[in-house]
Design a protein that fits this description.
Strand order of the largest sheet: 1-3-2
Order of helices and strands: HEHHEEHHHHHHHHH
Structural class: mainly alpha
Strand content: under 5%
Number of helices: 12
Radius of gyration: 21 Å
Oligomer: single chain
């Protein structure tokens, strides 16, 4: 099995097996032939064992003595796990509504986070948001810089709520933005200028206006919602 840069052999096995399960190659209730994985993937028994341990922690499989290792039903999956989300995005199953669910969840989370940030932000929070907005503004049509600054800005708003549970919802924002960027912000694409919308959110937070911050964020998300419902471009699954 080829090893891909930056992932390592163990990470490659986790990714391949996780993607197979999420894609439906192994249906729920299917027994995984653990002994066959070693020669199939060209890895050691210890690598397979450790990879299965990681996948088990994500709720995708379970094991019983004398019965073996089985794929669990979807209800057992840790759906907010970032790897599970990534595998669902890569699998792009027709029956998977991940992007719609992400859009709806983001619509619920981020306006509320902006409102909380407006009432709880500190001077340090505003300084960080100003810096992220400046980077966002300076990015222009450089898609890599734009995506990085955009993500920083939205995650800093979660942080400015000073609510640790909101902060832990960063996975939703990360994957929603990543998917949206792959849909819209690719070389040669056209998109509306996002700077005014983000400036409105920032200024509402600065002014401490909860309803205006919530409304500004809701307005800023409008095109993202439309993009996410259109579906994400295919991934290169040649290694899986």
């Amino acid at each position: 099995m080829a090893e891909y840069p930056g992932r390592g052999l163990h990470g490659e096995v986790v990714e391949q097996l996780g993607l197979r399960i999420v894609r439906g190659d192994y249906a729920p209730g299917t027994r995984i032939d653990v002994e066959a994985l070693e020669p199939e993937l060209g890895v050691s028994k210890s690598v397979v064992r450790e990879a299965l341990r990681v996948i088990r922690e994500k709720g995708l499989i379970d094991s019983w003595q004398k019965r073996g290792t089985f794929v669990t039903s979807r209800e057992s999956w840790k759906l907010l796990d970032t790897d599970v989300m990534m595998w669902r995005r890569e699998a792009q199953r027709d029956d998977d509504q991940l992007l719609v669910d992400l859009s709806q969840l983001r619509d619920a989370i981020e306006p509320a986070a902006a409102g909380l940030a407006a009432s709880h932000r500190t001077a340090e929070d505003l300084a960080r948001l100003d810096a992220a907005f400046a980077a966002f503004q300076a990015a222009g049509e450089n898609v890599d810089r734009l995506a990085e600054a955009d993500l920083d800005f939205h995650l800093l708003i979660l942080g400015a709520t000073h609510n640790e549970l909101f902060v832990r919802l960063d996975t939703v924002v990360i994957h929603a933005l990543s998917a949206r960027n792959r849909i819209q912000h690719h070389p040669g694409a056209r998109w509306h200028d996002p700077v005014p919308d983000h400036r409105a959110v920032l200024e509402a937070i600065r002014q401490g206006s909860v309803p205006i911050a919530e409304a500004a964020m809701r307005y800023a998300l409008r095109e993202s919602d439309q993009d996410l419902t259109s579906g994400e471009p295919p991934f290169d699954l040649g290694h899986a």
